[in-house]
Amino acid sequence: MVNNIKHRLMILSVLLLLSTGCANQPTSLYQQLGENEGISKITDNFLVNLSQDQRILHHFEQTDIDIFRQRLIEHLCVVSGGECIYQGASMFNAHIGLHISQADFDAVVSHLIEALKQQHIPLATRNALLAKLAPMYQDIIEH
Amino acid sequence: MVFSVLLSLVVASAQADTSKVIATGGATTIEGSAGGGIVPWAVINGYASSDQWSLTAMNTTVYVDDFTLHSIGASLSIDNRFELSIAKQTFDLDTLGGKLGQDIVGVKYKLVGEVLYTAMPQISLGLQYKRVDDFALPQAVGARDDWGLDVYLAASKVYFDAFAGRNLVTNLTLRATKANQIGLLGFSTATNNDYTLQTEASIAVLLTDNIALGYEYKQKPDKLTFAQEQDWQDIFVAWFVNKHLSVVGAYVDLGNIAGLKQQQGWYLSVEGTL
């Protein structure tokens, strides 16, 4: 009887250990991106990459970069499951009249991938984020 | 020689102005169209996106037990919409003696979808006009024509984060063809001049951003009576070194060819893109 209880306690403690082990692992995509701090750094790298690309710079001539940066951070936070509030327009409304071409979109995706790499975000996390962002193509392109 | 000059040009031009994400142009098949090694995909070759163009040159050799297939080719891609390609194949009958060959002119047009971004797969329509160099041997083994036209419909889609955090590339191609051994042994026979519908498929996992591991299957007709023709398959590793250089290595199984059984061996392709 005592042995049986000991045995059960052991199993319980192993389970507890395992579950705390899991709790210490980042679970949500938001956490894997480094939460607010990580997403801010990714955004800054991304903006620097964009600013060096003459092909797409003209799209940002009328843009307040500080506000754009803040909206982008909020957007990445919401998309990755963080508890933020995105205060910007919908992806569709935000790109009306900007004539974003497929080439522009492709270039932006490459710059985002590069920014994620610069922050040492692992491949699986990068792919998980791209999976969430890719469908926005329809709302952003040419309208 | 021409190829190495092209390649050095490609490597010298460090900054092409093309936008597509690396690896999304695929490799180039032995028929000159963008795809895997033996299956054309719906993707357009190179890295040109809208309002851009790119040039790709490839040099491929397939060594199997009793034959060597050599293919050189080039393609022009416009707007990520059109692909024009040419390829010259020479097929050495190493143990039988002799040589076969053909020229292939291809065109591909993207109908709908975006391989990375839309739920709808990217779907393209392709044509390949093929003409054999010397019709004597194909005619002797029963081929009817020295030229043929292949028509194919290809669908390609990348699934992000498909498993273990890796992206999956899938392709399905339906091809109407009259070709015997992809055209190297001519087209149709005296008794059978019908198009046959063949299914081809590829699947690949992007292990890293620029290394893909994949498998391809190519169904083939079997019209010539002198020898059985079998389906082809391969397992490939593609390394997209950068946007200007990629290398594909594969282990291929071409089945029975011209009465010689189980033709298995190696495939090596190097290509440069401007």
UniProtKB/TrEMBL annotation, chain A:
UniProt entry tagged with the keyword Iron: yes
Is Signal set as a keyword in this record? yes
Return one GO MF term. metal ion binding
- The residues that the entry says bind heme are 95
Entry-linked Pfam families: Bac_globin
Entry-linked InterPro entries:
Globin-like_sf, Globin/Proto, Hemoglobin_trunc
Signal peptide positions on this chain: 1-24
Going by the entry's taxonomy, the superkingdom of the source organism is recorded as Bacteria
Keywords from UniProt, A to Z, are: Heme, Iron, Metal-binding, Signal, Transport
Name by which UniProt lists this protein: Group 1 truncated hemoglobin
